Structures are given as C-alpha cells and as structure tokens.
TrEMBL record:
InterPro entries: Ala_racemase/Decarboxylase_C, De-COase2_N, Orn/DAP/Arg_de-COase, PLP-binding_barrel. Keywords: Isomerase, Pyridoxal phosphate. GO terms for molecular function: alanine racemase activity. It comes from the Bacteria. This is Alanine racemase. Residues 66-269 form the Orn/DAP/Arg decarboxylase 2 N-terminal domain.
Amino acid sequence: MGLTGAGAPAGAGPGSRGEHAGTVAAPLPAHRDPWEEQVLADPHLLADIAYAVGGPFHMMYPARVVENIHGFQRIFAAAGVSGAVFYGKKANKAACVARACATAGAGVDVSSTGELVAALAQGVRGADLLVTGPEKADELHWLAARHGCLIAVDSLGELKRLSALDIPVRILLRVLPAASASRFGMSADELGRAVTAAADHPSITLQGFSFHLSGYDPVPRAELAVQLLDRIQAARAQGHPATTISVGGGFGVDYVPAEHWSAFRDEANRRWFHSGKAFESYYPYSFPDPGPAMLAAILERDDLARRLRQTGTTLAVEPGRALLDRAGSTVFRVQGHKTRHEHGQPYRVLTVDGSSLSLSEQWFDSEYLPDPVLWPTAAGTPTPTVVGAATCLESDMLSWRRIPLPRAAETGDLLLYPNTAGYQMDSNESPFHELPIPPKVVLSQAPGGRFRWALDRS
C-alpha cells in the first residue's frame, strides 16, 4: 500500500482544498477488459452464479493471468535479456492462477509447504518454484530441496541449516538494501561470509542474489541490480555459477484513469465519507507505467539490459498483484438499505451479504477505491451510497466513501467490486460470525463465445 503522492493526503479534514466540494465523492471507475464487459452485459450469468453459490463470491478469469505473464515475457524478449517470471502466490490462493502460470511458462514464488504443494498440484515443476521468506521451517527446506526448488536464503543461520540437509540445493542470497531497516536479508558483510560458506558445501549451488524494495519506483531497483552485477562477478570468481538476480515484486497496477485519480486526490475530504472517516494513505490506484511497462523502465535505467546481456545474467521478477491485474472481481448481494443524512444531504447505506474481510484493503486502515458496479445495470437517479457488511461491527464497511452509484440500489441487486484478484480476496478472509468464506468461481470461454463457470479447486 502506498501514499497517495504529492499534495494533501486524501481524507484531509477541514481546510483542505475539497472542503466545499460537496458530500458526494468523485467517481473512480475502474478500467475494464472485454471479458468484464461481457459478464456485465450477460442478462443471466451473475444472477445464476449468485443463486447457485447462495452468498458472496469471487470471480476469476485465468486467461487474463496468462496474458499478464506474456506481457512481462515480451519485455524481456524485446530487450534481449534472459528473464524469469515468478508469480507471488500469496497474492491469491486460487488454484486456477497456479495452473495459468504452468500454462504460460511462469514460475511461482511460495513461502510455505502449503503453497509449495498447491503449486506442484497445478503442474508447476519444482525447478520453477522460488521459495522465499525468513528463517524457513525445516520441513519446507526439506521439501523444497527434494523437488529441486530455488531457495532464497535470508540469513547465515538458514544457510547452515540447508547445508546440514546434505541434499543438492540451489539458492539465492537475499540482500539487505543499504540504509534499509528491513528485518529481511543479509548485510554486505553477511553476504560475503555466505558466499564463502556456500563454496565450502558441495551440496549448495549459489545461483545468485535477490532483494525486495518497498514502493513502486523503478530507479532504485535498477540501481541495486547494477550493483549486484559486481557481486555476481565476484561470486563467479569463487567458483559459483551465479547466474541470476531477482528484483522482487512491487510492480504497480493501473486501476483507474489518471484524470479520475487526480480529481480524487485534489478534492477528497471528510465530507465524502460516512461518519467523517479519514484515511492517511491509499494505494496509488492510477499508475503511469504499470506491470510490464515498469519492467521496461527498470531494464532501460543505467544501461541494465546491456549489462545483463554482457554478463549472461538472468533477471528474475516476482510480481503478485501485477500478474492478477483485471483477472478477477468480487460480487456481493444487497440485503437491505436505509437512508441517512449528513451535512443536510441524504445518502443510501447498503448492507451486503458478506464482510470487508473479503476486501482486504479495508483492514489496513485504508479504502479500496475503484467504484463497484451495480448490477443489473439500468438508468435511474444518481445516488450517493456507502456499503456496510452483514456483521455487528460498526467498523465493518466495504466502502466508507459516498460512491455516486448511477441509481438507487435495491434489495437483491448485486454489487461487483472490480479488479480484486490482487490481495483483496485472500489476505484477510475469515469465517467471522461463521459466515462462509466466499468461494472462487472460475470463468472460461465456451463454444459460441459465451462464458461457463466452475468452482475453483483450491
């Protein structure tokens, strides 16, 4: 989650530029793909799924995941760089995503035995798995080594435990970036000792180095990758193959048009939110160079692509959210509604048949901002609307913002939150109140161009 950027933070109180901008929030319509337009235009599909499931559900369209993976692969090919794409599995547990990775030639980044086994079950080979995380459990080490996975080692102690397995293991050494306060990775001194220690253990093969940076700026990623090329060369001088640098994740997603995001940031104020709610920061929902375009910017910076080619080094990336862009949505049914007034203006309060635990941004003291779509789509009177959950918690709101829905929502309508596959569906879900966790519904094209659906196998 990132700050809104330059200017006053969204949610600023009295005195902000938007203080007198009214009580209805600026619209933030999400970008839509043709498959999403087709779903919304179908007169029966959403209603049929909702009837069969009997509660809220997540829709997944794995063909879009394949398309996103190919986007990163095309950038590597255009730059003439050897590249590897690993999907960060924590972003979404759906089995169909891991299957899409196997289909598209991408690996999967896993951090637990459960994630590792789930990826294998969907056809991802052990050699295409990258195992990350701090001080990994012995069982995870053993299983990863047995399947020939690439393991990102976080400490000297972890390296020692791996060498004690006496099983051939391929590793990356995770780097602690300079001036970083992160608890992950190794300092320059620790890296030097780890490279030397790895040379002393015939079972350890040092494949290279990895790092992760917060934020979405391509410049520091390129700069650190260039610096690590010197470490690659030094490791090779000590007899290691050292073929790979992983720059981690943090590839931005462009959720909404730039002009809408700019208007929101300029004008947002407490009057736009139920009960005067305020947030300090938001994910940057408009991103100028998302996903593959950000990879291109990294490769262009500091002549990185040429240096990778000259040294025969593979650049690995570990996107999670960016590989799920426009690959899924979350659907709730309206259970009821009421009218409230603030600042002398009426707005509608909806209660839907689920929880904000299925829209995880709300649990990081922030708001998921792309506008939900009211279905069936029909003309009506624009109605400012907030959305609450079917729980007894005052704070359990899916949308605090007074969203300008195109008509008044009624009981039985469906509310579709777009582009939720990246972290929103899985990060915080819980059967609170013994409400069932929404299932994932997988869409695929049937003969004749219509959609058919099935429950995900996760």
